[in-house]
Amino acid sequence: MIIGAMSLPSREGPQRPAEALPHGAVRLDDWGVIRAQGADAGTFLQGQLTNDVVGLGPGEARLAGYCSAKGRLLASFVVWRDEVGDFLLACSADLLPQTMKRLSMFVLRAKCKLSDASAERPLWGVAGGATFTALSARPGVTLPARTWAVAPMPPAGTLVRLPEARVNGSLVPRALCVGSEPPAELPALDAAAWRALEAASGTARIVAATVEQFVPQMVNLELVGGVNFQKGCYPGQEVVARSQYRGTLKRRAFVVHGNAPLQPGQEVFHEADPGQPAGMVVLAGALGGAFTALVELKLGASEGGALHVGSAEGPRLTLDALPYELPSLAA
Fold it and tell me: Do strands 31-37 and 87-92 pair parallel, antiparallel, or not at all (unpaired)?
């Protein structure tokens, strides 16, 4: 049962320097797209993913996880439908082949064909208020007005609105630009800066280094719209539901800053228990002279004391606020 919002303690450590908010566009070479087409594509995906995709309407996208039978995330997707009704699933490129192979094993007699659409649907990340203003001034462009909304991007692309990132206390809008290159006049955004914005949005993207490491709630997937608890069965559903309703969840995701590069899959340690990892880096990037990451942590490790990455003697990490409230769970 949700009983309130957790407050983050102040910590000493590396702080992000004040500067202008990031904006621009970047080709997302570390993302890919799976296409699911056929009369049974929707019902097939409905039985595999953590979110409701059958009810996905025009102008909508949804975040969804793909779990093992033990409820551990094998992949995460941004899902929407294209102009002919096929389902498109954007995910990390480094796990796309194995994920598509695993999903294909369960298609069986369903009328659903899965294919790699990355080449025909290239992805760019666009971010920042100035970037959104420039896009909205272009003929035929209507920006998606809310998170997980979809709008056309002339001449033949799509904009998918993503959750905002919190940078220096301000919210930075973000979107995926699919299939149509952003205007050339937009400034280039560094790939590491985009990954830092991903982390600062508190929205997990599973990559090869973190496959099967997290139950969805451990990375706050349900808090950003990635889990539907009323839909039908999917792999790992019992574990995910038990974590939600029985108060068994003891770990959550937090945004941190550090003074050394961070990588997904790195272990995080707390000074109170230096011999055992307290968590793991989910996503990481660099922005404004600081390194930013989304890390999964034991709840107790977020309540005080020093955090370090790699080992108990590794670089110090400093907690920052998420762009949304983080509930505490009571048994």
Answer: antiparallel
